[in-house]
Amino acid sequence: MSAPNLNPAQRDAVEYLQGPCLVLAGAGSGKTRVIAHKIARLLRAGTPAEGIAAITFTNKAAAEMRERTRALAGAAAAKVTICTFHALGVRLLREDGQALGLGARFSIMDASDALALLRECGPTTDAALARHWQSLISRWKGAGLTVAQAQERAADDAERRAARVMARYQERLAAYQSVDFDDLIALPLRLLQEHADVAQKWRAKLAYILIDEYQDTSAIQYALLRQLVGSSGQFTAVGDDDQSIYGWRGATLDNLRRLPEDFPDLRVIRLETNYRSTAPILQAANSVIAANPKIYAKTLHSAIGAGEPVRVLACMDERHEAAQALAHIQALRARHPKSRWSDFAILYRANHQAKPFEQALRQARIPYRVSGGTSFFERTEIKDLCAWLRLLVNERDDPAFLRAITAPKRGIGAQTLAALGKLAERLRLPLFATLASPALPTALPTRAVDALHEFGRFMDTLRADAARAAGKQAAHALLHGWLQGIGYEQHLATSSESAPQAAARWGNVLDFCEWMAARCEAENASLLDVAHTVALVSTLGEQQQEADALTLSTLHAAKGLEWPHVLLAGVNEGVLPFRPEEAGNPAAHIEEERRLMYVGITRAQRTLAVSWARQRKKGRANAPARASRFIAEMALDTPERTAAAASDARARLRALREEMEKAAQAMKTG
Ligand code: ATP
Ligand code: MG
Question: How many A from CA of 304 to the centre of ligand 1?
């Protein structure tokens, strides 16, 4: 067992087992560490592992917690339940869902399946409307409403229609023996509320419950928690009101306020030492969050102490921002030669902001991982185009062949491809080479052979043209000719869920072409050469999932995590804070966005940089942009401020000298 490394307040929180306990403390103060140690403590005290449940915010956090507890308590920790609220809900329903008429083998619908079902229930072909129903129904379920209650509460015709759709939707779910994500909390709650024997059983079973990131629980999760802990109040919740960032998804800080009311003997423990960040980083974080009204006043000081100042990178546009970020990271790598790529993270407000960074990282051949969203290069349309490029540079790439020949569909079906595959195997040839085999016409019907030959010819022409196309203009023309030739825009229009989605995907394709053409220019290379490196990195990307990689992440997905070097990107008005002018409640919106900024800053251990751009993309054009108010709120010692302070000091020195000279003069004359 490793030595318990805890300060007195943390130890207090770990040792306190007499009743409900809330650890309320700022970022990086060791709240999650307290949970891990407390699990080990409970095991040492003889609590059976099966009786301990620790609830985390994400599956990833659960995996990390399992790792930490194994390191602390060894094999004894294996049987501890460590999971999200949703996973715990699955367990309750699997064991006791029959009390609600649910079989043990029910299935869980993901959000996109649920959306498809809602469209059927409407019925509607309007994807946006279906999504609107989905979020409304989700909110109703999150507030614990049944269909009947939702129908009663519906405020207008649109809501009444949504409630009718909800009724059909719930019927279908039941008929399919399915549940959606919201049901994973709502149904277990109903189960415990309506079946005293089941509630009794689970309270006896779960002797102690621990919850991380308590500030981001929803009202219904809190209700479930109360059912599970019953009157014993044997639980520990840890959280930070300044890091509540899921208000938009129904999380509520009321849960923090209600805890002392619902559990009058609640013990509140505060942690005031931050073990994660250097003093300048923590100072910036504290300064930003000071602008929010306080529910609970907190102090936080750095155990690490002095460090490099926080840097602000002012950039021209998003592409320049990505280039600056890379230069910054390369410089840090040079200054910290022992660092690994996994020590670096670039964090941003919204998924789509990853794109320029991904492009720059690929170009520099730096391995990266995208979390909290789909990587640009993982998007269907970009993977389609990369498959074409891969096949272009390597005829033997069979997976690329199969993807390219079916994206878009060109009258070559599964049967034809299966027959082609058999022939290729018999001839021991790659699929592409098999197209030219004299045996092809004997193995397949003429129509199929013609279609395959046409694809082969198209590819050969494209390859020859790509080898000649050098310079931006030529590359551009060729890429657009190619997309037109294969009817790719049309393909997106027919295969996308909605017109806006098709347009967004086509936008990605145009961006990709723009980027390829720019590289031809910059590298003074033919399109085929550029395709070669892109293809190489895109295959490498598939193989090196687990390798040492830099993290690209949304701020939401970065919660609870830490990296030695963090860059917060796109810290512009309108991005972070996100479009304040469109918010229903602007003050509350800015406060939540400010907490997001606080979360971002406090992910950094050793260095922090914040970047913003003077121009940002709006549609397909650039529009002027301003630095976020949160940069000013960090109250950094900027060069100007330092210069001002220095000139101030010089002035004071001059005044002092004058004083002394005057005094000396007076003494001489006196
Ligand atoms: P967040 O609010 O971001 O979730 P947290 O309060 O959960 O942060 P932890 O992640 O538990 O904080 O801890 C932050 C860092 O400080 C971790 O690297 C952890 O190992 C370290 N740490 C915590 N407590 C101590 C301690 N007493 N001594 C040394 N290091 C510590
Ligand atoms: Mg934590």
Answer: 12
Cβ–ligand 1 contact at 38 (below 6 Å): no
Closest CA to 400 of 534, 263, 310, 594: 534
* For the CA of 29, the nearest atom of ligand 1: 6
The predicted pLDDT at position 200 comes to 95
| pLDDT at position 651 | 58
CATH number of 377-537: 1.10.486.10
Regarding the beta carbon of 560 and ligand 1, being less than 6 Å apart is answered yes
Atom of ligand 1 nearest to the CA of 240: 2
**Residues ≥6 apart with Cβ < 8 Å to 230:** 199, 203
User: From CA 236, how far away is CA 540, in angstroms rounded?
Assistant: 44
Q: What is the pTM of this model?
A: 0.77
Strand-pair category, 208-211 with 52-56:
parallel
101: CB partners within 8 A, 6+ apart: 174
Residue 83's DSSP bridge partners are 55
Told to judge if 243 belongs to the known catalytic residues of this protein, a careful annotator would answer yes
Clarify whether 213 is annotated catalytic: yes
CA 214–ligand 2 middle distance (angstroms):
10
C-beta of 27 in contact with ligand 1 (< 6 A): yes
Any idea where the domains of the chain sit in the sequence? 3-93+186-271, 107-176, 301-374+546-669, 377-537
Report pLDDT for 299.
81
**Is 659 part of the annotated catalytic residue set?**
no
CATH number of the structural domain 3-93+186-271: 3.40.50.300
Q: Report whether residue 270 contacts ligand 1, using a CB cutoff of 6 Å.
A: no
Return the pLDDT at 638.
64
Give the DSSP H or E segment for 390.
helix 380-393
Pick the CATH number of 301-374+546-669 from 3.40.50.300, 3.40.50.1820, 2.120.10.80, 3.30.565.10: 3.40.50.300
The answer to whether the peptide bond before residue 408 is cis (omega within 30 degrees of 0) is: yes
From the list 67, 63, 182, the residue with the least C-alpha distance to 118 is 182
pLDDT averaged over 10-residue windows placed end to end, the chain, 670 residues: 75 96 95 97 94 92 92 91 91 91 76 82 86 91 88 92 94 82 92 96 95 92 94 92 81 84 94 95 95 84 93 95 96 93 96 91 88 74 86 81 86 85 88 92 91 93 86 87 92 84 88 84 78 63 62 93 97 93 87 96 97 90 93 82 51 63 63
**Among 10, 32, 170, 363, which one carries the catalytic annotation?**
32
Q: How far apart are CA 225 and CA 228, in angstroms?
A: 5
* CB 5 near ligand 1, within 6 Å: yes
Per-chain residues with Cβ under 5 A from ion ligand 2: 31-32, 560
Asked if the domains 3-93+186-271 and 301-374+546-669 are classified in one and the same CATH topology, the answer is yes
Q: CATH classification of 107-176 is 3.30.70, yes or no?
A: no
Q: What was the pLDDT predicted at 656?
A: 61
